Amino acid sequence: MKTIGLVGGMSWESSAAYYRDLNLGMRERLGGLASPRLAMTTVDFAEITHLEDDERWDQIGTLLAEAARGVERAGADFLLLCTTTFHKVADQVEDAVDVPVLHLADVVAAAVRASGIETVGLIGTKVAMSESFFVDRLAGHGLSVIVPDESHHDFLNDAIYEELVHGVVLPRTRSRVVSIIEELWDAGAGGVLLGCTELELLVKQADVELPVFPCTTLHVQAALDAALA
């Protein structure tokens, strides 16, 4: 079994989901008391978000690269960034280590293409929706990506940072997010990416008719595949 490296802390709710689901997934696959070999570090989310607010992405990249090197030194055979937004500096992290980084967009794109869908909607943080780093990576796999109208970006960002990262799940927020997903459907999306770990706390497949691609769940499954390959 290979050792999975995790760079987390963005937020701790996200890291907890990765840790839990990796352990549950390994138990489901191997049974008994089986659990994955993990090397994990977490960063200070407050520090990272302050740097994000100031658009100091080079410094964020330096911090995450150093965290990744620590996980590599701890014995990781490959790495996951337990975040979507901060994949903005994934190239900087990849350049800092000698082990592979299992990029979230590559994993998600493979799942979407396997389903036969070519156009997907993406909901996530304001950075993930308004900047091109994640959408462009998906497009490199032949996917067309639709993001919500800009008028929804602040609402979605606030729902993530002011509610979900604190574990607060509100029905009124779910209702509005579902309506945003329906707008993406009307715009031509054949499925929707939950492009932030915490959104999986809020939206389930049962809430919408459009096929849902939970990015963290897909990332976890791909990591387990790689660890057991």
UniProtKB/TrEMBL annotation:
MF GO annotations: isomerase activity
Record carries keyword Isomerase: yes
EC number in record: 5.1.1.-
InterPro entries: Asp/Glu/hydantoin_racemase, Asp/Glu_race, Asp_race
Listed Gene3D superfamilies: 3.40.50.1860
Keywords (A to Z) from UniProt: Isomerase
Pfam families: Asp_Glu_race
Signal peptide limits: none
Family matches, as PANTHER family: ASPARTATE-GLUTAMATE RACEMASE FAMILY, GLUTAMATE RACEMASE
Protein family according to the UniProt entry: Belongs to the aspartate/glutamate racemases family.
NCBIfam families the record matches: asp_race (TIGR00035)
Name used for this protein in its record: Amino acid racemase
Organism (species): Nocardioides potassii
